[in-house]
Queue: 4 jobs
Job 1
Amino acid sequence: MNYPNYIKKEKTFRTNYANRGMVLENDLNITNQYYQEKDIAIINKKATPIQVVKVSFNLKKQPTIKEAYFKKPSTTDYNGLYRGKYIDFEAKETKIKKYFPLHNINKQQLKHIKSIIKHQGICFIIVRFTSHNKTYLLKGSSLLEYINTTKKKTIPLSFFEEEGYLIKETYLPRIDYLKIVDQIYFGGQNEEKN
Amino acid sequence: MNYPNYIKKEKTFRTNYANRGMVLENDLNITNQYYQEKDIAIINKKATPIQVVKVSFNLKKQPTIKEAYFKKPSTTDYNGLYRGKYIDFEAKETKIKKYFPLHNINKQQLKHIKSIIKHQGICFIIVRFTSHNKTYLLKGSSLLEYINTTKKKTIPLSFFEEEGYLIKETYLPRIDYLKIVDQIYFGGQNEEKN
C-alpha cells in the first residue's frame, strides 16, 4: 500500500504514555502514594486530558478507543488536600545545567497558578535539574514575581538556589516536598508527621 | 472479511465521550465555568482516566492514539478550590423516582470521600432525580453515616429531602451549589459573592 511518506513509525506502549521517560514524575507518584498510604495527604496527578474521537463497542468486551488525541494541559499536573488546605503544583525536569526554560510552563498554566494563589490555595512548581540531580520547590508567587520583574525566557539555576528550596531525596518518601510545604506554608514542622 | 460476531457496531463521537447523555454533568460544567469567569472558585471536572495502549506517530501531525481503554474512576469527579478550602464532589443522576441506588458510587470512591473528610476537605455528592427535575447536595458525612447505619443498597428520596439541600436551578449559574456550600460549610452567606 501507498502510505504517505510522513508516516514513519508506529510504536506500542504497554505502560502509561504520559510517563514517557520522566523520572521526576515517577518519583512524585511514588511519593504521593506513600503520603496516601500513611494518611498524610491526598495528592494525585491529574489524568492527561485526551480528546476521544472514535470508540468501538462490542458486547463481550469493554469499549475500545480507536482514535484519540492528547490535549494541551490548561492547569497544573497535581492537586490535592493537605492539612485542610488545597495544594496545586506543576513538576518539570530539565537536562540543561544552568537554567530552566520558561516555555515549559504555558500561559494557561501561569494564569491558573495566579488564580490559585488569589483564592488562597498553596501553589508551587517542582523543578529537577537532572544533570545535577537536584530538585527544587519554588513558590508560585516567586515564579510570578520573577516573570513580571525580569521578562526573561529562562530562570537561572542560581534563582532556584536563592529563592527556591532544595528537596532532600530519600528512600521513602522519595521526594519529601511536604516537609518544605510545612516549613514555608505552615510556619514550621508538622509535629504529627515527624 | 470475517469479523468475530460480537462486534456489532462502531460509533463515532465528535464530542467528549465522557459527556454521553449526562445533562447534570453539562450543567455543572457550565456552572463551574461561570464560577471561574466570575473569579468565584476554581473547580474542574477531572479528566476521564484513560489507559493508552497504542500510539501512532508521524512527523507532520500530532500523535494519534490508536488503542486505549476507559479506566474505572478511583476518586470523585470534581475537585478544586473555594474560599481557601479544598472542595471535592461526585455528581450522579438517576431516572428512578423514589430512591438513589448506591452502586452508582463505588467502594474506592467511598474510601476517597472518607479520606477527604478526615483531612478537613469539603466533600459532598450532588444527585439529580431527573423524573422530578430536582437536584440535591448531600454532605459526604451524611452519606457515610447513612451507609454505616442502614446497610441498605439504596437511599430513598425522602432522605435527600430531609438530610440534603435542594439546589435551586437558575439561568446562570445553572446549579448554584456554592450557595449551599456557603450555608453549610461557611456558616452563612458569602457577602462578597451576593
Note: Residues 45 and 78 of chain B are 4 Å apart (CA to CA).
Job 2
Amino acid sequence: MKPLIGVGMVGYAFMGRTHSQAWRNVTAFFDLPVTPSMAVLAGRSRERAAAAAAELGWAAVETDWRELIRRDDVQLVDICTPGDSHAEIAIAALEAGKHVICEKPLANTVAEAEAMAEAASEAAARGVRSMVAFNYRRVPAIALARRFVAEGRLGEIRHVRAQYLQDWIVDPEFPLVWRLRKEQAGSGALGDIGAHIVDAAQFVTGQLLTGVSAITETFVKERPLAEDADGLSGGSRTGGRGEVTVDDAALFIGRFDGGALGSFEATRFATGRKNALRLEVNGSRGSLAFDFEAMNELWFHDETEPDAGFRRILVTEPGHPYMEAWWPPGHGLGYEHTFTHEVRDFLAAVAAGTDPSPSFQDGLRVQRVLAAVERSAANDSRWTPL
Amino acid sequence: MKPLIGVGMVGYAFMGRTHSQAWRNVTAFFDLPVTPSMAVLAGRSRERAAAAAAELGWAAVETDWRELIRRDDVQLVDICTPGDSHAEIAIAALEAGKHVICEKPLANTVAEAEAMAEAASEAAARGVRSMVAFNYRRVPAIALARRFVAEGRLGEIRHVRAQYLQDWIVDPEFPLVWRLRKEQAGSGALGDIGAHIVDAAQFVTGQLLTGVSAITETFVKERPLAEDADGLSGGSRTGGRGEVTVDDAALFIGRFDGGALGSFEATRFATGRKNALRLEVNGSRGSLAFDFEAMNELWFHDETEPDAGFRRILVTEPGHPYMEAWWPPGHGLGYEHTFTHEVRDFLAAVAAGTDPSPSFQDGLRVQRVLAAVERSAANDSRWTPL
Amino acid sequence: MKPLIGVGMVGYAFMGRTHSQAWRNVTAFFDLPVTPSMAVLAGRSRERAAAAAAELGWAAVETDWRELIRRDDVQLVDICTPGDSHAEIAIAALEAGKHVICEKPLANTVAEAEAMAEAASEAAARGVRSMVAFNYRRVPAIALARRFVAEGRLGEIRHVRAQYLQDWIVDPEFPLVWRLRKEQAGSGALGDIGAHIVDAAQFVTGQLLTGVSAITETFVKERPLAEDADGLSGGSRTGGRGEVTVDDAALFIGRFDGGALGSFEATRFATGRKNALRLEVNGSRGSLAFDFEAMNELWFHDETEPDAGFRRILVTEPGHPYMEAWWPPGHGLGYEHTFTHEVRDFLAAVAAGTDPSPSFQDGLRVQRVLAAVERSAANDSRWTPL
Amino acid sequence: MKPLIGVGMVGYAFMGRTHSQAWRNVTAFFDLPVTPSMAVLAGRSRERAAAAAAELGWAAVETDWRELIRRDDVQLVDICTPGDSHAEIAIAALEAGKHVICEKPLANTVAEAEAMAEAASEAAARGVRSMVAFNYRRVPAIALARRFVAEGRLGEIRHVRAQYLQDWIVDPEFPLVWRLRKEQAGSGALGDIGAHIVDAAQFVTGQLLTGVSAITETFVKERPLAEDADGLSGGSRTGGRGEVTVDDAALFIGRFDGGALGSFEATRFATGRKNALRLEVNGSRGSLAFDFEAMNELWFHDETEPDAGFRRILVTEPGHPYMEAWWPPGHGLGYEHTFTHEVRDFLAAVAAGTDPSPSFQDGLRVQRVLAAVERSAANDSRWTPL
C-alpha cells in the first residue's frame, strides 16, 4: 500500500468542486507514489460545508480554516477561496509545515504575493512544497505547445496573441457577485482570466514579459445587489444596486524578454464566447494556435515542410502530455482534468521532494504583470516596465 | 441517507474503466434517489482483477461472474465483457433478479439478442430493469440533436449521413486482438462502431431503418498473433500470424420508416480519423451536424431564419441535456461522461421503477440491422428488408 | 502576335456565363500560344442571345447552332446546352473539324455518349480535339489532391467518401425547371452533380469504379409549372403542376479497381448545404479532405509525420496547380476560375496538338456509372458491375 | 448604347492587375449606366507598360502620368502606384477634372492626405468624384457585417478585435523591396495592411477611433538589395544589404467614439497566415467574426435566439451585398471581386453624380490613425488622441 497524504481543502464553490473531482480520480488514472486522502473540507457554514463534503467526498468538515491547518490528518492544504484570503491561509499553512496548492491569482496585491513567495521559499528550505494553480498549463494541448517551443519547432518567437473571452456578465442585470467587487476579487477580468493568459503565454514561450501598455474598462458601472451569490452564478437579489469596482475588460500590448511582441485581451463581454482562452504563437519556423473551447486540439504550422498549413493535432495520443493515462486516441478529455493533472504533478513533486511548478514565485511574477497593467491603464497607457 | 444499490461489474478492460469512472463520480454531480456502491468486480485472473479493483475503486473481487451474480451485496450487474458472453451473463443476472446494464452490441447474433430481449421483458414484469449501453446517446450534443428533431425544428427528415471513422488498425502489423476475431467479437467495425451509428441515427431521427444494401471488406487478411491483448491495444507477440475473421469496414445505404434515406460507413481504416462518430441530418426546415472529435459542439442550421447558416452550439449551457450538473458554459466535458450520464439515467429508472432506454429490445433492433448488413453484403448487396 | 482561335458558344444560361468569363480572362493570367477570340454565341431567341452576347462579350450571334458550326471564324465549339442536345451538336461540330468542349454530363444516355466518344476518337485522328467539362478537376485544391495521390503520399487508397450536397429545391413550391425533367436533363441530382463526384473520385484516386449498389429517391413528386425558367432559378409560373421525372437524390456504394471502397451521395435536399462538393480519401499513409464551400483549402493528413493531424493547406501558393498565374498567397480564387483553368488546359492542348483530358471517353465512363446507378436502384439495389 | 467613360490607370504591378481585372469584367455582371473603356495605361518603361497593357487589356500606353491625365479619352484616373506619388497624381488629376480612384493608404503622410482631401473636396464641388480604394469594404461578408451592425443586430458594440496577419517576409533573405523602404511606402505593415483593418473596423462598427496606444517593431533590420522587385515578390539580387526602414509589425489598442475598445495587430511575421484579415466584433446582442482566408463566410452570433452559437453564413445568397450579380449560392467569389465591386460602386456614383465612399476624407482619417500609432510607439506607447 502506498502512503496516504491527507488533504484539507478550504472553500467548496466552483474551484472546490473541480479540485474535489481531481482528488477523487487522480489515482484511478495515474500511478503515484502517494495516495491522497480527502480528509477535511473547511467552510464557514457548517451545514453547507457538510452538504458539500457529502456530495464531493470529503471525510470531515471544519468551519475555521485554522482548525483545518492544525489537524494531524492534513498534510496538504488546497486553497480554493477568493483572492483576499489566499495570503493569510497560505502563509499559515506553510508555516505549519503543510504543503500548499493555491488557486490563482496568487493574491490580490503584489505585496501579498511577495509575502507568499517569501513564505514559500522559506518553507521549501524545510521540504514543504507549494504551487499556484494555473490549471490551463495542464491542458494537454498547452503542455504540448510548450514542448514544441522548447524543442525549437517554432524557431525564434515573434508574436504572441492571447485572449481570454467570456460573456457571462453581458446582461446588465446580472448581479453584483463577489467577482465584481475589488475588495474580494482584487480585480475583474484582469485577475480572473487575464492572469491565465499571462501565465500561459509565458509558460508556452518560455519568455517573460518586460513591459506593458494597457487600457481597462468597466462597461456596466452598477448592478443589482444579491446575497449568497458565488463567483459565477447570481444568488438571490436583495434589492438595490451597487457599484462594480473591478474591470470588465483589460487590453494590453507588451514585449517579452526573448524579443516577441504580445497582444493580450481579457474580457467578460465577448458575447457568444463562453470560455475562449485562445493562444496563437508565431515563430520563424512555425506557429501554434489553441482555443480552449476545443480543448483537445492544438493547431500547428510547420513552415519547413512542403505544402505547409495549420494542422489540427488531436492531443489524445499516448505520446502527448498526460495522455498515456487516458482513453484511446480521439476520445477527448474535459475541463476538469486540467485539475487532475495539476494534482498529479503536485503529488508527484511532493513525493519526490522537488519543487513543483508553477511556484509562488511564478505566481508573483504574474501578479506583477497584472499590477503593471493596472498602473499603465491608470497612467495614460504609458509603457510600464516589469 | 439515500439507499445504497450494490453494483457488480464483469470485465475491467476499456469499458470497465469507463464504467468505473461513471460509478465513482455520478453522485458528485447528479442528485439521485439511490447511491451506487461499487461492490464487486469480476475477472478471470484474481491477481489482475484485484489490481484493477484497487485502481478503479471496487470493494471486492470475484473470479467467476456467477459468484458475482449470487452475492447479496449486488443488486445491479454491469456487463463489460466481449459480446460472446453477453447473453449468458445477462440472462442469468436477470433471472436472479438483478438489474442489468450491458455493453453494446447487445450480442454477437440475433438469436442471442432475441433471447436477451425476451429475458429482459420477463424480468421487467418482475420489476427488474435492463439497458443496453449505447453511451453516445448520452453525449449532450446528441441528446440535444434528438430534442431538436422531436420538437420539429428540422421538419421532415430527408437524409441521414452517419459515419464512424477510426484508424487504429491501419498498420498491417497491428496484432490479432480479440476485436478482430469473429468468435469473440461477432463482427468487426460493423458491430463495434457501426452499431453506434445505427443506434444514434435511429435515436436522433426517431425513425427505424426498413432495409439496407451493403458492402463489407477486410483489407488486411492476416495479422500477427499476440496474447494478453485487450480490445484496442496489442499485447505481446507470440509469433506466427492468424486470419482476421471480421470486417475492417462496412458501408451501407438504407431507408427509414419515416421516408429518410441513410448513408452509413463504419471503418477502422480512415487514416487520421481517431474517433470520428459523425452524424448529419437534413430535414425540410433545418439540418444538424455532429462529430465526436469535437464532442461539445452541435451544428444546427435553421432554414427558417434570415441569413441562415450552420451554427456551432457549444452544448455546455445549463438548459442543455445533462449540463445543469456540470461546469459553467464553455467548460466542456470529456468522453467518459457519456457513461456518467448513462449510469445516471439507469439509476434514475431503477429507482423510479420505470424501464430505461435503450432497452434490450432496442439493442435487438440494432442487432437485426447488423445482421441485415452482413446478409446483404454476402448476397450481391441486394436490398435486405428489416 | 499570337494566332487567334475563334470560339463559338452554344447556350448562354448559367454555364454560358461561366464559360464566357473564362474565355474573356484566360489570357490575362495565362501565357498561351493561342489567343481565343469570342466570335459568336448561338441561342434560339435572337433578341435574348444578342443581349447575352453584349453583356458577356461575344462579337456575333446565331440562332441556329448549325450556322455557328458552319462559320469560318469558329474553330472551337463550346457546348453549354442541356444534355439532350449534346450528342447532336458535338458530333456535328467534330465532323466539321471543330474542336469541341462539351458541358457535363457528356450526354443523357450511354448510347449517345458512346456515339460521341466514337466521333471524338475519329476526330482526334484528324487532329480535332475534344474535352468534357468536368470543371471541378480544375479546382486547384482538387488538382493538388490528385498530385498527392499520384506521388504516393497517401499510400494505398482504402476509402473514398464523396458527397455533392445542395438544397435549392427543398421548397416544394420551387417550379418544374428543365433540370427536373428527364427528357431534357437525363437525370436529376445524379447526372447534374453526381457526375461531378464520380469524375472527381476517379480523377483524384486514379482508380475506376468497378461496380455499384444504389438507391434513388424523388421526395417531391409534383411541382408548379413555369416557363422561361433556366436551370437553377424559377421562371414565371404558368399555373398547374407537373410531374418531377428525375431523382432528387442518389446514394450509392461501390468498389474501385485499385481496391478502394467508395460511398457516394448526390442530393438537392441537404438543407443548408449550398454547393458542398465534398471528397475525403483515406490511404494507408495519409488522407485528404475537401469541401467546395471552402474551395481554396485542401486538408491533408500525413500519417508518417510525428504529431500528425489534418492540415489546412491554403492552395494559393505559386507551386500549387494553376496558382503561379494568380494573386499572392492567401488571396483566394472563386468558383469561376475552375472554368478559366479548363479553358486554359483545352487551349494549351489544342495548340500543342495533344489530347486534352478529361476526354469524351472519360465522359462515357462516367455516363456508364450513372447508368449503372440507375439500373441498380431500379433492380433492388443489386450489385451492378461496370 | 450606354455612354463610355475612359479610364486611365497609373501603375501595373499587383494593384494594377487587380484593378484591370475589375475594369474588364464589371459590366458582365453589373448593370451600370456607364461603360468603362480601358483607354490607357501609364508606366515609366514603355516596353514593360506595353506588355502589361497587352496582357491586361488596355488600349494605349503612356510613359508619363501627366500625359495620361491630359488625354481626352480619359475621364477617370485610377492610381495604383506606391504611396509616395499618390498626392501629386491625384491632385493633378482632380484639378484637371478627372474622377480619381486612389489606392490605399491615401498617402504617405498626413500632410499629403490633407492636401488630397482638400483637393477632393474642391473637385466634388465641381462634380468631380474621388474615392480611396479600401477594397476590403467590398468583400460581401464585410459589407454584410456592416449591415448587421447598422440594423442593430449586435446591439451596443463593446469590442473590436482586428488583425491583419501575413508572413511573406519571415525569411530574412527576402530582399529589400520598395514596400520595405519608408521613402516609397511610408510605413510597413502599418500602412500596407494596418490601414485596411483600421478602415474595416471603423466601417463595420460605424464608429471612429478616438485614441491609441501602440508598439511597433522591425524584426529583421537589414535585407539583401534587389532591383526590379515589385511590392510583393523579390527581383534580382544586386549584392549588398540595405536597411529596412519600415515596421515589420504594429500592435495597438484603442477606443472608439461609441464606447467600444479595439485591439489591432498588423504583421508580416505571422508564419502560416497568408492573408488573414480578421475582424471580430462583440456587441450587447450579438457578435461577428470574419477571416479573409475564408472570404465567403461571415460568422454571426445572435445572443437573442435560443441555443445560440456562431453560425457560418455563406455570403453567397442573392440577398447578400453584391451577390445578386453572381453565381448560385455556395459558388464563392475570389479576392479580385473586391475590386470589381469597388469599381462598380465608383462608376455608379460617378454616373449618379453622388460622392462615393470611402472618400479621401475617410482616407485622411485612417492616415491620422496611422500617424497616431507611429507617434505613440515613438513616445513610450503613450495614449495618443485623435
Note: Chain D has a mean pLDDT of 96.
Job 3
Amino acid sequence: MVDEFDLIKRLFAPLTAGRPEALGLIDDVALIPGPAGHQWAVTKDAMAAGVHFFPDDPPDLIARKLIRVNLSDLAAKGAEPQFLLLATCFPRDIDAGWLDRFASGLKTDCDLFKVAVIGGDTIATPGPLVLSLTAVGMVPEGAALLRSNACSGDHVWLSGTVGDSALGLLVAQGEGKGLSETDASYLLNRYRLPRPRVALGPRLRGLAHASMDVSDGLLGDIGHICRASKVGAVIEADRLPLSTAARAALSAGLGEGLTTIVSGGDDYEILFTAAPEAEDALLALSAELDLELTRIGRIVPGEGATLVDAEGRAMASGRGGYNHFSGGPA
Amino acid sequence: MVDEFDLIKRLFAPLTAGRPEALGLIDDVALIPGPAGHQWAVTKDAMAAGVHFFPDDPPDLIARKLIRVNLSDLAAKGAEPQFLLLATCFPRDIDAGWLDRFASGLKTDCDLFKVAVIGGDTIATPGPLVLSLTAVGMVPEGAALLRSNACSGDHVWLSGTVGDSALGLLVAQGEGKGLSETDASYLLNRYRLPRPRVALGPRLRGLAHASMDVSDGLLGDIGHICRASKVGAVIEADRLPLSTAARAALSAGLGEGLTTIVSGGDDYEILFTAAPEAEDALLALSAELDLELTRIGRIVPGEGATLVDAEGRAMASGRGGYNHFSGGPA
C-alpha cells in the first residue's frame, strides 16, 4: 500500500536539492519567480476514476472538480489562478460523446474562473481514466500564505461549512435514504462540485498567518499546519460550521457523526489562522464576500491538534483514530 | 480511439482563451513570464505502463525516461531545465523495493541534469502505473525556439542519429535475434534511456529558426514544423544519420527499413532549421559539444514534408502512410 506522506518524505524530499521554491514539499504549491515583484504558485494534482470520482460520474463534473481542486490549492495560498496544463490519460475505448461533455465542463469552469489551458498531454491507456492538472497562479512576492506561519495565540478560521462533501460521498454510495431530496442533492453536489474560494484567498493576504485548503479532513489538515508551524491547535467541536443539510444528515444517522465531519475530507474550504486583532477585518470580509468565515479554535504552544467539546474536554487528537467517536456535534 | 491531435484542436484549443502563453497548443511548451527578462518554458507529458514503457522495465529507467522525455522538450525550445513537478499514480499493490528503485532513478537524473523536484502529487489507483511530469525551464525573453519560425531556404538539421529507439523497441519486443549483443544492447538502451540534448538546445538560440524534439517520428515531426511555419520541407533519405547499430539492424532485416527509421519516433533528438549561413557555426558547435549535427534537408515554399532519394525523387510525403516503404537507406 502506498503511503503518500511517507513516500514524499522519504523518496521525493531528497529530490528538491534544497531549492527554496519547493517549500520542502510540505506545502500545497511550489513558488517560482515571476515577473516584476511577483511569484508563480504552481500546484499539481492527480485524480483517478474509482479513487477520486466514480467512473460513471457526469464527465463535465469530473472535469470541473479537477479544475476546482487545483484552484482551491491556489486560493488557499493567496494566489490568483491564471493557467492550467492538463494531462488526460483516457481509457482506449472512451467515446466521443464522453469527451465532448468532459471538454464542455472544462470550458465552463475555465470561463467561470478566468483561467486558460496553456499546455498538457493526451494519451490513451489500457487503464481507468487518470487526470493530472498543473495550475499556476500569481501572488505578490513574499505574500503567499504558507502552512508554516501559524503563531501561538492565533485564531483558527474556516470558510464555508465542513463535512458536506464527506456526507455527499456517502449519498453517492447509496446511503442517506432517509434524507430529503433537497438535503441529499445539496450534499451530493458539494461532493461532486467543490467551490474553490478564489475570491477569498487573495483577500487573506496580509490578514492570515498560515493557510491551506481542507482536502484530507479538517483535523488532519490543521495537523499539517501545526507540524509546519511547530505549534499546537485546539479546535472547538461546537463551533464547527455545519450546513443545514449536514445537520439533517447527522440526525438521520448518516456517517459516523463528528468523525465523518472532521476527517472526511474533500471540503475544499480555506482553513487559516490569524491574529485575534484581525477578527473585525475578517468578519467585514465575510460580509463583503457573502461567505461564512467561522472562528473554530486557536493556536497554542506545543504540538498536534486537539478537538474539544463545549467544556474544553479533549474529544480526539492527532491524525486519524476517530473511529470510536460518533456523537453528532449539534 | 483517442486521436490526440484531433482532441487538442477540437476540444482543448478553445480553452486557451487566446492567451499567447499557450502558443495555440501547437508547440511543445507554454511560455509564461519569468523574472527579469526571462520566460519560463513549461511542458507536461504523461506516460503509462503498457503504452510508453513495459510494466516490467527497470523502475529506475522508467523514472529516468520520464525526466528525459520532458527535458528533451525544454532543450529543443532552447530552455535550461530547472524544476520538475511529478504526479505518480501507482498501482495499489506496488512494492517498496520498486518504489525505492524508481526514486533512485529520479535522483540520478535530477543530479545529472541539475533539476529539482519542487512539487507534485502521489496517488494509488486500481490501474496500471501512470506518471505525469511537468518540467520548467528558463529562456531569455523572446529567445525560445518555436515550431513556427522555419523559413523557406533554411537547412533542416538533426542532432545525433535517427531510428535507434524505434529499432530498440523492436529489440525489447523480442525481435532482432540476428543482431550482435553489442548492437542489440545499444539500440535497447537508446529506447529505454533517451539522451535529451540539454547542452545543445540553449546553444541553438540565435542560430536555429524553428526547432522541436523528435518524438512522434522524424517525418511526422518535420510535418509539424511545416504546418506551424506554413512551409514545406524536403528531407534527403541518404543524408539521414544512422548509428552503426541501426545500419546493422536494417541489414539484418529488423523493422521495415526506412519506414521504421523516419516514423518510429521516440528519438528525442533536436530537429531544427537554420539559415544556410549558420552552417559553419553549427559545425563548430557540433565539434565543441562532440555531438553529431547533420544537415538532412531544406525548407521550401509550399506545404508538407517530402522524403527524397539521392536523385531527388519523392519516396514518401505527408504524415503516416509509409507502409509500402521498406528499402533501407544505406
Note: Residues 147-317 of chain A form a domain with the Phosphoribosyl-aminoimidazole Synthetase; Chain A, domain 2 fold (CATH 3.90.650.10).
Job 4
Amino acid sequence: MEMIKGGVCAAKGFRANGVHCGIRHNRTKRDLALIVSDVPASAAAVYTQNLVKGAPLIVTKQNISDGKAQAIICNSGNANTCNANGIEIAQGMCDLIAQQLDIRACDVVVASTGVIGQPLDLSPIRSGIPALCAGLSADGGKYAAEGIMTTDTTVKELAVSFTLGGKTCHMGGIAKGSGMIHPNMATMLVFITTDAAISPNMLQKALSQDIQSTFNMLSIDGDTSTNDMVTVLANGMAGNPEITAEGKDFAAFMQALNTITVQLCRMIAGDGEGATKLLECIATGADTLEAAKISAKSVICSSLLKAAMFGADANWGRVLCAIGYSGADVDVSKIGVSFRSAKGTVTVCKDGSGILFSEELAKEILLEKEIEILISLGDGPYSATAWGCDLTYDYVKINGDYRT
Amino acid sequence: MEMIKGGVCAAKGFRANGVHCGIRHNRTKRDLALIVSDVPASAAAVYTQNLVKGAPLIVTKQNISDGKAQAIICNSGNANTCNANGIEIAQGMCDLIAQQLDIRACDVVVASTGVIGQPLDLSPIRSGIPALCAGLSADGGKYAAEGIMTTDTTVKELAVSFTLGGKTCHMGGIAKGSGMIHPNMATMLVFITTDAAISPNMLQKALSQDIQSTFNMLSIDGDTSTNDMVTVLANGMAGNPEITAEGKDFAAFMQALNTITVQLCRMIAGDGEGATKLLECIATGADTLEAAKISAKSVICSSLLKAAMFGADANWGRVLCAIGYSGADVDVSKIGVSFRSAKGTVTVCKDGSGILFSEELAKEILLEKEIEILISLGDGPYSATAWGCDLTYDYVKINGDYRT
C-alpha cells in the first residue's frame, strides 16, 4: 500500500468540485461540495445514533437502500436538522443534482452540516449547481474537501493505492470535523471513494466493522452530532474481480480502508475546535477489548485531562480518575501511565500510585503538538486507541458565539 | 420550615472550626476543617462510584460501618488518592483528632480534597490540630466551610429549622465544588449536621433516596471525582422521638434534607469552575422518570450548550442534540424548548422544530446569571431537574495549570 495524492478523486472515474453558492455569508468559503462517479457505484453508509437525525440522513438512507449510488452532494453552513420542511429540502437537493447530471435522484447521497434548526433555503443551492457541475474534475477533490468544512481549520483528505486480484486499486477520503464530535456507532461527515469492485453487502460489512475501532474511538467534545455520516462509494473501475465474500481480497480492502479512516481520525482530532494538540490514548494489557476501548475513550473525553494537556501539565491523577469512572472493569492497583511525544517518554504512575519523575522532562514532552497517553491496565491481551484533542480558550470562544 | 443561620453549627451540640495548617502554600487559605458533635451521632454517607477511590473514603466507610460517628476532619489541597501510603495517612488523621478530642478514632469521618497522586504529609496536620480543636465553637461553621474549599470562589453553607414530634430541630450543611463534579450515585464533599433523632438505618435511607434527585443530577464538567462523599451526622439533641421507620416524621425529615441538598446543588453549580451562570434544566412531560432525568442531565452536560450559554446564544439545536444522544427514550417530534430567567421566558422550539422568536429577548434573558432551560418532552407525568453551569475561558485557565 502506498500513500498517493488526489483525495476522493484518486480512484478512477471519480470527479469532484466545491463552490461558494451563498448559504454562508463569507464569499471566500466554499459551501457546496459534489463528488460524482462516472458509473453507478456500490454504496455503504453508517449514520449517527442520535435520536435527533438530520433530514439529509433520512433521505440518504432511503436512496442507498438498494446498495447503489453515483453522486454525493453536501452543503456546509446549515445542518438542515429540526426543520419542519427538512426532508423536502434534502430531497430537492437530490432532484436538482440528478437533473443537472442526468442521473437518478435515488442515486444521490445528500448531507448537510452547520447550524441546527434554521430553515435551509434551496435558492442558493439551485443557483450554485450549474457552476458546481460544470467545474467537476479529477483535480477537484480538494475543493470538495473545502466545501464541507465548518469550523475546521485544515482540509482533511488523503488517498492510498493498493492491489486486489492483480489490479491496482485506489481509495481516497475527505472529512470534516471539528465540533460536536463524539461519534456513536457512526461518525461525523466522511466521504470515501474507491475504484475497487466490491458488492454493496461486503462494502457495508467492511465499513461497519472498521468504524468500531476508528471513528467510534474519536471524541472532540463528547457531543454526538445529529448529522454524522460516513459514506463509501466503490465504482469497480479498477477492474479487480468483485469482492463478494471474506478472504484475502476483503482483508486487503479492509487494510486500505483502515489506513484511510485512522488518518482521517487523527486529522479530525488534531483539528478539533480550538485544539492545539492531538491526543492519542493507547490502552494496553486489558482483559477485554471493551475494557481497553472504554478506558482509552474515557481518558480522551475528560474535560479536566484535556485542559491539563492544553497547559502541558502532567496531571496524571486525572487519567486515573477518568479510567475509574469509565465503567470499564479494571484493577486500579495495576494501572500504569506514561506520556510520550517526539521529545521522549515519561512514566508518571505505576501500580495505581504516583512515582517520582522529572517535571522538566514531562513539561518538554507535553509541549509538543502530538501527545500519546499510554495506559497499561495489566497483563491482559487487549489494546485499543482513542483520539481526541486538548480543551482550550478557543473552544469556548468558537462555541460561545457560533450561531450568531 | 425556616431558613436560619449557622451552617453546620445550626444544630444543637455541634461545633466547628477551620485553620490554615500548611498543606497549601497560601497562608490566608484555611486548609483543615473540623466538625464535632458533643455526643456520638447517627451517621450515614454515600460515596463516589469511581473505581479509583480516595483513601479517606475507605477509612470512613470502615469507621461508620456501625452507623455512628462524632467528628468530621477534612483537609483541602491534597486528595490523598493514588498514594501508596494513603490509608495509613487517612487513619493517622483519625487517630490524631481522636486523641486530641478524647473520642474513639473509629468515630471519625475523614475526607480529603485537592490534587490526586501527591503524597500527603501528616506533619502540618499534626501541628495544626491543637489550634483547630482549641478554636472549636458554635460560630465556627463558616471556618469549616472555608477549610474544605478548593477552586470554589464562594462559601457554601445553609441551615433550616423544622419540627419533629413537637420539637424544633435544625439541620445545616456545607459543601465544596467546583471541578471534577459529575456525581454518580454519590457526590462531591458535603457535610450535613442535624440535631434530629433518627436511627442510622433511616438516616442512610433518607440520604440514599435524596441524592437520586439532587447531587446525582448535578454536573460541572462530566468528571466523576475519586473523592466524592456526602456525610450526615444526626446527634438527636433536639429531643424528638427517634425516627425509626417511615411516616410523617420521616417525610418531614426528608423535606428538610431536600431543602438543604437542593440549595447546596445550586450553590455548587453556580460556583462551578470558571462559571458565570447557573444553569437549571427542567424536563417535564416525560413518560418515565428515567427519561426526564437522563434528558435533563444530558443537556446540562453538553460542552457545546454550556459554551453557548456562556455566550448568551439561544442555540437551542444543541439542546435537542443533547436530548437526542442522551439515551433517553423520547419522541423527538414532541420536544419543546424554552429559556427562562428573571428577564422573562422565550420559547424557541415546538414539536421538534424551530419557531420564530425574538433574538433580542432571548439575548436579554440569557445574559442573566441564573438560566432555566425548560424542555417539554410530551404529555407524560414525569419531570426532573438537573443543575450545571456554563463553560468559560476561566474553566480552561483553572484546569490548564491546576497542579503546578
Note: Chain A has a mean pLDDT of 93.
